[in-house]
Amino acid sequence: MPSSRAVSICILGILSLSVMSLINIGPAALAVGQGAKWKNCIEHPITSGNLTLNLCTSRVRYESGDTVNILFLLTNIGPDSMQMSSMTGGVFVTDPTGRPTMRLEIIECLGNLGNCVLPAHSSRTITARWNTSDPLTAATMSGTYTIHLSFTACPINSPCVEAVDSQLPVTIVLTDANIDDQ
C-alpha cells in the first residue's frame, strides 16, 4: 500500500495535469516509427550509463490555436531491463518577455507507483501537449516562446540520466480569427 506521501505526490501530479490538454504515454514504436514528426530537438541527447534522453517538439513554428506537442524519449540502450526507482519531469513555457505561461509536472513512476521497468533496447515516450489557445495557458503575443524541460530517470543500481532546464524555442504567430476570408 502506498504511503500518504506517495499518494500526495501522485495527487499533485494529477492536479498539475489539469493545466495541460493531455499526457500520453505510448510505445517506443510511436516515437521511433514517427521520428520524422519530431523536428525541433535538443542539440545532443543526454546520456548516462545505458540511458539516453531526448527532448523535442513537433515543429518550430506554430500559429494561434495550434497544439505544441512536447516529447520526452527515454531509451535503454543496454542489454538488460532496468527497474527504475523514479521517472519524473516538468515542463514550463515562458512567453517572449520571459513571463511563465504554462507549467506541468510529470510523475511517471515513483517507488512502487506506476510501470517502472524499461526493457532492454527499448524506449518510453512521454508526450505533453500545450494548446496555445487554452484560456488558462494561452499564447498572448506573437514571438519566440521558450519551452523549459526537466526530466530525471533513475534506475536501481545505475546512474540517473537527468536534463535540467533544457530549452527549446518555438515561434508562435497569433492570427486574428475574426478576419473574414475574401
Can you walk me through this structure?
The protein is mainly β. The protein has one domain: Immunoglobulin-like. The chain contains two helices and twelve strands. The chain has helices at 4-17, 28-33, and strands at 22-26, 40-41, 46-48, 51-57, 61-63, 67-76, 82-94, 100-110, 117-118, 122-131, 143-155, 161-173. The strands form two sheets. Strands 1, 2, 3, 4, 6 and 10 form a six-stranded antiparallel sheet that branches. Strands 5, 7, 8, 9, 11 and 12 form a six-stranded mixed sheet that branches. The longest helix is centred in the first third of the chain and has 14 residues, at 4-17. The radius of gyration is 17 Å and the shape is elongated. Residues 1-36 and 178-182 have low confidence and may be disordered.
Q: Summary?
A:
The protein is mostly beta strands.
Strand segment count:
12
- Category from helices, strands and their pairing: mainly beta
Largest sheet: 6 strands, antiparallel
Low-confidence segments, given as residue ranges, are: 1-36, 178-182
How does CATH name the architecture? Sandwich
Produce the secondary structure layout.
Layout: H1 4-17, E1 22-26, H2 28-33, E2 40-41, E3 46-48, E4 51-57, E5 61-63, E6 67-76, E7 82-94, E8 100-110, E9 117-118, E10 122-131, E11 143-155, E12 161-173
Parallel strand pairs: 5-12
Antiparallel strand pairs: 1-10, 2-4, 3-4, 4-6, 6-10, 7-8, 7-9, 7-11, 11-12
What characteristics describe this protein?
single chain; 182 residues; mainly beta; Immunoglobulin-like; six-stranded antiparallel β-sheet; six-stranded mixed β-sheet; 2 helices; 12 strands; elongated; disordered N terminus; disordered C terminus
